[in-house]
Design brief:
The chain is of the alpha/beta class. The chain has helices at 21-34, 54-57, 70-80, 92-98, 100-109, 154-161, 174-186, 208-211, 242-254, 274-281, 284-287, 301-307, and strands spanning 42-46, 61-64, 85-91, 114-119, 122-123, 129-130, 165-170, 191-196, 223-225, 261-268. The strands form two sheets. Strands 2-1-3-4-8-7-10-9 form an eight-stranded mixed sheet, sandwiched between helices. The chain has a two-stranded antiparallel sheet with strand order 5-6. The protein is globular and about 65 Å long. The structure holds thiamine diphosphate, iron/sulfur cluster (SF4) and magnesium ion.
C-alpha cells in the first residue's frame, strides 16, 4: 500500500506562503496515492514559472524543461514509453503565451496524457506581469496599468484544439481537484485541466475570497459545479453530430465568467489516440515501445539499401 509520503520529496519549497500551487501539488500527490501509481511509473514534466517547480516536489520521474516547451517534451516521453503515466504541468504564461502553438498542436494529436494549467492570471515567477488569461481592463497590484488586451479562454482553446477531456478545477478545493485529476489521468486521450490558482503575492483581484467555493471556509459561491447544474459534456457516440453539439455547449459554458464560474468537466469523448494510430502505421511499435528497442546495435543496412 503506497502512502501519501511516498510521493513527497525533501526538496526545499520556496513558493510564497498561501500560494495556490501548494493545493495543486497536494492534489497531484493525493491522486497518485488514490490511484496507487508507483513513482517509477510516473513522469511529471513542467515548463518555467513558479508552477514549473512542481516536479521537484513530487517523488516520481520529473523534468523541469524550458519556457513554453513542456508539451513537446512530454509528448516525446509518452511516445517513447507508453508504460508511464505522463503528467505535464505549467503556468498560463507558459502554456498560452510562449507555448500557445504547442498547446494547439498537442491537442490535435490526442496523445494519452494529462496537461494541468496553473491559471493564476499573472507571470508569477517574473514578478506579476499580466498573463494571457487576465481579463482586459483588470489591474493587479503588480501592474502599472490595467490590461489592454483581451484574455484567452483556456477551455475554449482546448476544445477548439481537439483535447478530448477538458475540465476546470480550483487549487483550493483539493477534493474537487483530486477527483478531476483522477478522471483526467484515467481518460484515454489528451486531457486538459485548467486549474484556477490563487497568487496572493501578485494577483490581488482573483483571491480566495473572490473565488469562494461551497466546500471552503470562505462562503462566496462564485464557483459552481457543472455536475450539480445538470450539465453533461460527455459524448456517448463520437460518430454522430453529438460531438459538435457537445463542443458547442462546452464553448458557450466556457465563456461564463463573472458572478458565476463553472468548474468540472466541460467536454469528454473517447476516440482513438495518437498512439493507436501510430501503432497501425508502425507495427514494430505495437509489440515493443521505443524505450525497449535496441536502437544502438540495430542493423540498418537493409534500410539504407532501400534508399539507395
Ligand atoms: C524563453 C524564455 N522567455 C522568457 C523567460 C522568462 N520567464 C520565466 S517564467 C516566465 C513567465 C511565468 O509565468 P507563468 O507561465 O504564468 O508561470 P507562473 O510563474 O505564474 O506559475 C517568463 C516570462 C524564460 N525563462 N524563457
Ligand atoms: S509569486 Fe504567486 S504563483 Fe509564484 S509562488 Fe508566489 S504566490 Fe505562488
Ligand atoms: Mg501564471
Amino acid at each position: 500500500m503506497l502512502e501519501l509520503k511516498t510521493y513527497r520529496t525533501q526538496v526545499h519549497n520556496d513558493w510564497c506562503p498561501g500560494c495556490g500551487d501548494f493545493g495543486i501539488v497536494n492534489a497531484i500527490q493525493m491522486t497518485f496515492m488514490e490511484m496507487q501509481l508507483e513513482p517509477h511509473r510516473v513522469a511529471i514534466f513542467s515548463g518555467i514559472g513558479c508552477s514549473g517547480k512542481t516536479p521537484h516536489f513530487v517523488n516520481a520521474y520529473g523534468f523541469h524543461t524550458l519556457h513554453g516547451r513542456v508539451l513537446p517534451i512530454a509528448t516525446g516521453a509518452r511516445l517513447a514509453n507508453p508504460g508511464l503515466t505522463v503528467v505535464a504541468v505549467g503556468g498560463d504564461g507558459d502554456g498560452l503565451g510562449i507555448g500557445a502553438g504547442h498547446f494547439v498542436n498537442t491537442g490535435r494529436r490526442n496523445l494519452d496524457f494529462t496537461y494541468v494549467l496553473y491559471d493564476n492570471g499573472v507571470y508569477g515567477l517574473t514578478k506579476g506581469q499580466a498573463s494571457p488569461t487576465l481579463p482586459k481592463g483588470v489591474k493587479t497590484k503588480s501592474m502599472a496599468a490595467p490590461a489592454i488586451v483581451e484574455r484567452v479562454n483556456p477551455i475554449a482553446m482546448a476544445i477548439a484544439s481537439g483535447y478530448t477531456f477538458v475540465a476546470r478545477s480550483y487549487a483550493l478545493d483539493v477534493r474537487h481537484l483530486k477527483q478531476t485529476l483522477r478522471a483526467a489521468i484515467e481518460h484515454r486521450g489528451s486531457a486538459f485541466v485548467d486549474v484556477l490558482q490563487t497568487c496572493p503575492t501578485y494577483n490581488d483581484i482573483n483571491t480566495k475570497e473572490w473565488y469562494g467555493g461551497e466546500d471552503l471556509p470562505v462562503k462566496a459561491p462564485r464557483l459552481y459545479k457543472l455536475e450539480d447544474s445538470g450539465y453533461s459534456g460527455s459524448v456517448a457516440d463520437p460518430s454522430t453530430d453529438e460531438v459538435n453539439a457537445k463542443k458547442g455547449n462546452a464553448l458557450v459554458k466556457s465563456f461564463e465568467w463573472g458572478d458565476k464560474i463553472p468548474i468540472g468537466v466541460f467536454f469528454k469523448m473517447e476516440v482513438p489516440t495518437f498512439e493507436d494510430q501510430l501503432a497501425l502505421r508502425m507495427p514494430a511499435l505495437k509489440d515493443k515501445p521505443f524505450v525497449e528497442q535496441d536502437i544502438y546495435s540495430r542493423d540498418i543496412t537493409p534500410l539504407l539499401d532501400e534508399l539507395t
